[in-house]
């Protein structure tokens, strides 16, 4: 039976205990990892796109996206506390709905993590180029900061940061978490400063009309800036490396998501209330222009050439632009510098999540066992980290940030929906299993997560909607051509083969 291959929760837990990763992370570190993964490109880079799609209504978009993430986080928390192992949504689906759907979720998570990391790397590149120009007077040729679709050769800064993050992840989890905690503090300080300076001078008149593009525009913006929340589930992929995961994983998930949602609402309010406002840019005939198009770029240049302030929708460093407009020029530059310093932490967490999903899939036999090899000195899955790093670097080198973010969202929404379904199924088929964290109002929360994910998915641009089934078809070909015949569960092996490379905590160094 095609859906009959289920890996029991007991087998998953046994595998993790015998061949697991080192447990070194606490609740505070997990919360920092979650905040580090969430606060980044979405608020620093995609604010302009949200303003163009929804105007001041982007605050409602943040609430919609945050609500979908909140109900999904509650579902994640129950499963992560029951199954505190690496693998995130992939592992949970394997335990509940079988190997084929688990493979599809793991395959979709590549869109979320690897493609998402590429999007953040491209967003960081824009800030880095701006800092080189504003602070050092160095003008980087556009051919080397844009991919072919934007008229360039390669996005060199994005390639460099992807390579550095790959190296850091190979060195070790604890070291990565320490660097991440420092970068999180920089990001939070920068956004706190933005809020403190922008809210006191907020002009409430700029919130009218609230939804100039209607609710369709608000929904479209919510689907895009959903990327601003992507990453909180990376906390659950670190469950196998967490001390007392039954307590600490739910704390890390919910605390990081709640913290980020409040921040986003305050930051977007400050941007909307600034002299720039947040009304979408239209052409001379009054037609709304789509974000990321050459028509919008031409219109923005014409507005600035006419002596007007550059609209929020036109800025590539929106928050820094707002502060410069209200008179805090140097602090605006510092906000840009903070984004430049801090965005790599988001690349780090997304690549961290991807490597742990790949590690778990390889440990189950669905990917080559070599990918699950652990470095004899650093005790990290170095092979899969390097493979992920190469894929992330290639995508960042040649694709634009907007498309990457939308592609990432399509994979994320599918994975979130499968987690919510898994929670419902498990409540039915195994009601007596111990649940250290129980999702409240499960028969209301889980369906809300499922419907919310579907709504946001179908609010994405058409190409992003089509990417998911196309990517899924490639995944099915790989599954039936390679993975299905090599699966340990399919071969009747309930635990992983006795391979020293897959026993990082007890194995002797490999020679």
Automatic annotation (TrEMBL):
GO MF annotation, one: amino acid transmembrane transporter activity
Its primary localisation, in coarse terms, equals membrane
A GO CC term assigned to this protein in UniProt: membrane
Which Gene3D superfamilies does its entry note? Amino acid/polyamine transporter I (1.20.1740.10)
* Superkingdom of origin: Bacteria
**Where is this protein found?**
Membrane
Pfam families from the UniProt entry: AA_permease (PF00324)
Q: What keywords does the record list, in alphabetical order?
A: Membrane, Transmembrane, Transmembrane helix, Transport
| Domain Amino acid permease/ SLC12A, residue spans | 30-429
Membrane topology, from the record: Multi-pass membrane protein
User: Per the UniProt record, which residue ranges are transmembrane?
Assistant: 27-46, 58-79, 100-130, 150-170, 182-202, 214-232, 253-272, 334-359, 380-399, 411-429, 441-458, 464-482
Tell me the protein's name. Answer: Amino acid permease
């Amino acid at each position: 039976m095609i859906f009959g291959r289920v890996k029991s929760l007991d087998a998953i837990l046994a595998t993790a205990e015998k061949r697991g990763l080192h447990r070194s992370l606490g609740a505070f570190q997990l919360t920092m990892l979650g905040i580090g993964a969430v606060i980044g490109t979405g608020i620093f880079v995609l604010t302009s796109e949200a303003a163009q799609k929804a105007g001041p209504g982007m605050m409602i978009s943040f609430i919609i996206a945050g609500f979908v993430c909140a109900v999904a986080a509650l579902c994640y928390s129950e499963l992560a506390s029951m199954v505190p192992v690496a693998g995130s949504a992939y592992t949970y689906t394997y335990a509940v709905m079988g190997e084929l759907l688990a493979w599809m979720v793991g395959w979709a998570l590549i869109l979320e993590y690897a493609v998402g990391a590429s999007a953040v790397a491209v967003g960081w590149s824009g800030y880095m180029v701006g800092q080189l120009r504003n602070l050092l007077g160095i003008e980087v040729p556009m051919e080397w900061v844009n991919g072919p679709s934007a008229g360039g050769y390669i996005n060199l800064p994005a390639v460099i940061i992807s390579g550095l993050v790959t190296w850091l992840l190979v060195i070790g989890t604890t070291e990565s978490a320490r660097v991440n905690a420092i970068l999180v503090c920089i990001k939070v300080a920068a956004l706190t400063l933005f809020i403190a300076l922008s809210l006191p001078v907020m002009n409430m008149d700029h919130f009218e009309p609230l939804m100039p593009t209607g609710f369709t525009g608000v929904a479209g913006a919510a689907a895009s800036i959903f990327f601003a929340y992507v990453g909180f589930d990376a906390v659950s992929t670190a469950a196998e490396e967490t001390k007392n995961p039954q307590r600490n994983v739910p704390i890390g998930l919910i605390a990081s998501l709640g913290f980020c949602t409040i921040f986003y609402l305050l930051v977007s309010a400050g941007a909307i209330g600034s002299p720039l406002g947040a009304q979408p840019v239209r052409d001379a005939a009054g037609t709304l222009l789509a974000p990321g198009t050459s028509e919008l770029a031409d219109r923005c240049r014409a507005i600035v050439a006419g002596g007007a302030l550059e609209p929020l929708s036109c800025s590539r460093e929106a928050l820094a632009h707002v502060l410069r407009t209200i008179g805090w020029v140097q602090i605006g530059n510092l906000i840009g510098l903070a984004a430049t310093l801090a965005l790599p932490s988001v690349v780090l967490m997304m690549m961290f999540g991807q490597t742990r999903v790949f590690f778990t899939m390889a440990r189950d036999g669905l990917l080559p066992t070599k990918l699950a090899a652990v470095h004899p000195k650093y005790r990290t899955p170095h092979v899969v980290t390097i493979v992920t790093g190469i894929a992330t670097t290639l995508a960042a080198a040649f694709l634009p940030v907007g498309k990457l973010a939308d592609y990432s969202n399509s994979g994320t929404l599918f994975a979130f929906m499968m987690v919510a379904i898994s929670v419902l199924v498990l409540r039915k088929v195994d009601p007596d299993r111990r649940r250290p964290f129980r999702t409240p109002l499960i028969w209301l929360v889980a369906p809300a997560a499922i419907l919310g994910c579907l709504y946001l998915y179908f609010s994405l641009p058409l190409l992003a909607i089509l990417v998911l089934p196309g990517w899924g078809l490639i995944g099915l070909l790989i599954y039936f051509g390679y993975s299905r015949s090599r699966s340990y569960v399919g071969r009747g092996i309930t635990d992983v083969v006795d391979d020293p490379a897959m026993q990082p905590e007890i194995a002797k160094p490999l020679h």
